[in-house]
Write a structure and sequence with these properties.
The complex is a heterotetramer, with two copies of chain A (382 residues) and two copies of chain B (150 residues).
Chain A: E1 6-17, H1 23-38, E2 47-51, H2 59-64, E3 74-78, H3 83-96, E4 102-110, H4 124-128, H5 134-149, H6 153-167, H7 181-186, E5 189-191, E6 194-195, E7 204-213, H8 214-220, E8 225-233, E9 247-249, H9 257-269, E10 278-280, H10 286-295, H11 304-309, H12 326-329, H13 334-350, E11 363-369, E12 375-381
Parallel strand pairs in A: 2-3, 2-4, 10-11
Antiparallel strand pairs in A: 1-7, 1-8, 4-7, 5-6, 8-12, 11-12
Chain B: E1 12-13, E2 19-21, E3 29-36, E4 42-44, E5 58-62, E6 66-75, E7 92-99, E8 103-110, E9 120-131, E10 135-148
The complex binds zinc ion (ZN) (2 copies).
The site of one zinc ion has 8 residues of chain B, from loops.
Chain lengths: 382, 150, 382, 150
């Protein structure tokens, strides 16, 4: 089913980074920014969803209390790294059902420093045996890809180089610092072959969207961006060996979650990868972005390394990816991550992205992928 | 649960229905798995249902102890939480080992971290873990068997 | 908008109590029971929602993995004690939007023993000052009601007596033991005037519903129950002083969350309280049930005590309430609580409730209420 | 945060912007609140926005120290978590106190648990709490002022 009558009328963000501010502060800031961008008041909102993974129960109501009294339904939604996609999708479904017309979707996270608490996703026996390092799972994918296709450490570092360089121009990003290829390749290994400067930074941040119908947006004016597709799936059996997998079939290899979700999103939007002008994708680690190129159809299997090496995914390239700096350089406050991607893309499609603007961007894709193979893909059109 | 119910000197399997000792000294172990009679898929541990088709006509099998390294990495930092490996921390290998029974298993790798190669032949080995004063766990890892299937 | 074309085709439950079984065991049991009741297979399900408050991230996908491989969207949903209502509502909206036609809604909880971890909902200063006892907030409502309307400890105990007695006939309840009025009134005070045998028991359990369109249910046969309304709201400003409130306006008193949500549900279903044959409501404590009688319109303000005292809310009475035993005697595994109420009511409406059957029950209401004034009301019709 | 930044002997307010000492010995305190210039509603603590209307034209006020007991209960079991009241535990009162500034405040009640009545006149009092060796908090409670408004 086509989502094309549903639009984003307002987008707001609190920068991603490390802050003393509370989750309430971050979330209220982003929510107010989105409402202001939409030209609407809090009292115009008929329902709200909070995307979060680490925040405690009923955080949505507690954060949005800052905007003033209300009696609308406020629901917390979680689907690992795809939480933002799941929350945005609930808003789309609620509007399409004609239950409500204008919805706030908010993503907020304040993450503990360092590696995530493994008991959130791993079993006790995996933790005892040392199998609770997320980067180990990412790295094993990289090692196999290097073995099968000759992907190089330099190509992987090229992804991190690009994303760190892009974030310099993004006031909402955490690092905003360019690193040389030499610096990246000299940064310490976390899990071979993935290095410190090549993995995503868990941090704090918030992003918010005001979602409504095209009809209402036309009444109100403003600068709406159409949601052409918003798809959420979990990985099929034996389609993915991301954490916390303890094993995988050697006889069945199903389509991976990114390829599957992107395919459904392309079908929904009735377009293909060549129709898309810019992308924000889940660079949990620099290798992962290479694999995603292949799975969303920017190149053939095994061709992701050469694609980035040739500069095709730079801002001036054929397929610009992670103009914001991506998770590697903008950071990954999990609950806010996908919505932050969408805020970046709304800016790109409106031509408001400043020094990181992709010329003539009309169509854009946001992609997230995480624990349990939770994957979400949103396609926007302007 | 199993640790609670054993004497202080006893060794409990790291996870119920996943690993079994084949001799009193725990010098040889077996990895346990399940095969679905409906779709034929094999899974790690004793599962009541098939993760592929949801069927519940399941037979218990031993997964075999010789395999090949399908991929691997080296963990360079102490894993978060209650990791029971060497203290102080030493970098160690983690791999996905393909067993002839049709399953690839995530596992720690014993041995020199500079020597692992995809395609290596590896063999199941017991790994005894101590937790505090009283708990001892029978875990598993794989170790180089010599030779390469690649 | 009327939800009347959306039906519950299958209902399943794992008994509420204390079990060694894992959340996966409990949840898979309830989900399989609901599918069997609907006459459907797991592969017929197009989307799933998990209602949970205490379980960790991505529990929905991890529990439902037990049913076999899938790539449907599985989303965890949380809205405190109203989580089950929020999850059921997402299913209704998803179906009404025509995105999917058949959805599994699952509620699962495995709760820690004793009082809940206060940091989930209270601020550190409230905890340090001893303001982190949920029953204290419930009890303060009771004290004021007793002061204003002459409600008695005996009337409050009568609620607990009724609910414990009802649960004797419910194989899904925890206590299943009748207590005399004397035993209840002799049980230790927790917070005056509320006693040990008058408060809900946090425990373990799971409940599941298969929700689909009336159209599909007619094709399939079976014994569908119509969802006439499913409403979720949060409390308005100064409408409620439930935990973790630190203060309340003395000048504004807005309509409370139960009265507000019930009113919206009555409007949606186009009926009133007198059209409803039986009720399952949030007896977090025995007094709370008395207050709910008044707020959902079973009697006038201050008349809740006499209503229960006269036996009008007994199974044979004019307004049977908590035939299952309620939260007091069936227990409250938070994420499973509202869906467990709905499972009870589906059984009542189908005439399958055995010794606790309400005669000729055609219409039924389920109500939950919790932290932040999260409230959900579902009305069913058969 | 405030505790970290004070010397071991200093007393920090239990919550920023909620309570203030009026003399060096902390014998007298003031509860702080906010009044919304848009809708007139009063809230507890120093809030940047109004919880009623969301307005941000807010003035800080003192909430006053004399009120009446609107409702109360007696807590008979030790509250869960990091409660800093008497150890061993003693049952204590908790109330909702109506202040003339237009707010009802949740508060611990000092005094004999058998004597509280709705309508009692109560007065704000400092409550010093010790946490571990180094932290001391300035908290608040209300205590009987004599007389009843009921
Ligand atoms: Zn099978
Ligand atoms: Zn105001």
């Amino acid at each position: 089913m086509n989502d094309s009558d549903i639009v984003i009328l307002g987008a707001g963000i609190h920068p991603f980074g490390r802050f003393d501010a509370s989750a309430q502060d971050l979330g209220a800031h982003a929510a107010r920014a989105a409402l202001a961008d939409a030209g609407l008041a809090w009292s115009d909102i008929e329902a709200a969803y909070l995307s979060r993974m680490y925040l405690p129960a009923t955080s949505g109501a507690r954060i949005l209390r800052r905007l003033g009294g209300t009696d609308i339904p406020i629901v917390d939604v979680e689907a690992a790294c795809a939480s933002g996609g799941a929350a945005l999708r609930q808003a789309v479904l609620a509007i399409r059902s004609q239950d409500v017309e204008t919805v706030l979707v908010l993503g907020v996270e304040k993450m503990p420093r360092g590696f995530m608490d493994p008991s959130m996703i791993y079993s006790p026996w995996q933790i005892r045996m040392g199998m609770s390092m997320n980067p180990a799972y990412w790295s094993m994918r990289a090692m196999r890809h290097m073995h099968d296709y000759g992907t190089t450490q330099s190509q992987i570092a090229r992804v991190a180089w690009k994303n760190h360089r892009n974030s310099v121009h993004n006031p909402n990003a955490m690092y905003r610092k360019e690193f040389s290829m030499e610096e990246i390749l000299a940064s310490p290994l976390v899990c071979d072959p993935i290095r410190r400067l090549e993995i995503c930074a868990p941090n704090d941040g918030a992003a918010a969207l005001v979602v409504t119908t095209g009809r209402r947006a036309r009444q109100l004016g403003g600068n709406p961006v159409t949601i052409a597709a918003c798809i959420h799936t979990i990985a099929r059996y034996s389609a993915d060996f991301r954490c916390p997998a303890d094993s995988m079939s050697a006889t069945i290899e199903n389509t991976g979650p990114t390829a599957l979700t992107a395919r459904k999103a392309y079908e929904t939007a009735a377009i293909g990868p060549d129709d898309i002008d810019c992308f924000e994708v889940q660079d949990t680690d620099a290798f992962c972005e290479i694999e995603i190129y292949e799975e969303i159809g920017l190149c053939g299997l095994g061709q992701g390394g050469p694609l980035v090496e040739a500069g095709h995914t730079d801002i001036g390239g054929r397929y610009p990816v992670n103009m914001s700096g991506g998770l590697i350089s903008k950071g990954e406050p999990v609950g806010a991550s996908h919505l932050g991607q969408v805020v970046e893309l709304v800016g790109q499609l409106r031509g408001q992205a400043g020094a990181r603007q992709v010329a003539d961007a009309r169509t854009a894709m946001a992609h997230v992928l995480g624990a349990g193979g939770n994957c979400a893909v949103t396609i926007l059109r302007h | 649960m199993q640790a609670e119910s054993t004497a202080a000197s006893a060794v409990a399997p790291i996870n119920d229905g996943m690993v079994r000792s084949l001799d009193p000294a725990h010098g040889q172990i077996e990895l346990l798995g399940s095969r679905c009679a409906t779709c034929g898929e094999v899974s790690l541990g004793t599962n009541a249902v098939c993760l592929n088709c949801g069927g519940d006509n399941i037979e218990s099998i031993a997964l075999g102890s010789e395999g090949t390294l399908w991929t691997f990495t080296v963990v360079r930092h102490r894993p978060p939480g209650n990791y029971l490996g060497p203290d102080p921390f030493e970098p160690f290998g983690v791999g996905l080992v393909e067993l002839p029974s049709g399953l690839r298993v995530m596992t720690p790798l014993d041995g020199d971290i500079s020597t692992f190669r995809i395609g290596d032949k590896v063999r199941l080995a017991p790994w005894l873990l101590r937790e505090g004063e009283d708990r001892r766990w029978l875990a598993f890892r794989f170790t180089a068997a010599g030779g390469s299937a690649a």
